Amino acid sequence: MKAADRYHHFVRWSEEDQLYIGYCPDLYIGGVCHGDNDEQVYTELCSIMRDEIEHRESRGESLPQPSVRVTRDVELVAA
After folding, report:
1. Environment class of residue 5 by beta-carbon count within 10 Å: exposed (0-12), middle (13-18) or buried (19+)?
2. For 61, phi and psi rounded to 5 degrees?
3. Per-residue pLDDT tens for 12-42?
4. All structural domains of the chain with their residue ranges
5. pTM for this structure?
6. How far apart are CA 30 and CA 79, in angstroms?
7. Burial of residue 33, with CB atoms counted within 10 A of its CB: 0-12 exposed, 13-18 middle, 19 or more buried
8. Which residues contact 25 (CB under 8 A, 6 or more apart)?
9. Bridge partner list, 35
10. What's the CA gap between 16 and 72, in Å, rounded?
């Protein structure tokens, strides 16, 4: 399993912004990327996550423990 697979990440439509927004709440507060196409946003989000994890590991930093659970926290972090 890749390190990024441990973290819940998702794309959600924002009525307010009229865009898709990508989230990974265990690594970032709020939205990470956005765009008009949900699949492109998801691809960009996965790339950003991989880069962040590689950066932290290259600096010897520990990664946060995954804690977000879909059924409980999605609405809270996307608000």
Report:
1. exposed
2. -80, 145
3. 999 999 999 999 999 999 999 999 999 999 9
4. 3-73
5. 0.83
6. 8
7. buried
8. 8, 68, 73, 77
9. 20
10. 23
